[in-house]
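A favour, since you know our structure tokens better than I do. Would you make up a two-line entry for one protein for me to read? Write everything out right here, beneath this request.
=====
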Amino acid sequence: MKRAEVIRKLIDETGLNTKAFAKKAGLPYTTLRSMLERGMSKSAVENVIKVCGALGIAVEDMEQMVNTAHAVLFVHPETTITNKPNIDKGLSSLCCLTVTR
């Protein structure tokens, strides 16, 4: 999974649309849209940090999610997740290890 796909999924989980999330992150909507369409690797580092900050994650957390994307599971919100990576509790639908129901 690419960085922009991970970020788009996390933004969707906030319940905000792209325009509202851009405002929360302190970015122009067009900048965020460009980041999501063209990819995060072509974005200014400051903008990536703003997006991650608005999501409540560190840039390193995003990288971990990208690097373990082959193991990402999308699970029901009531599912118990254990042994997950050190990521923010708001990201409960992204899991890389043990899932029980």
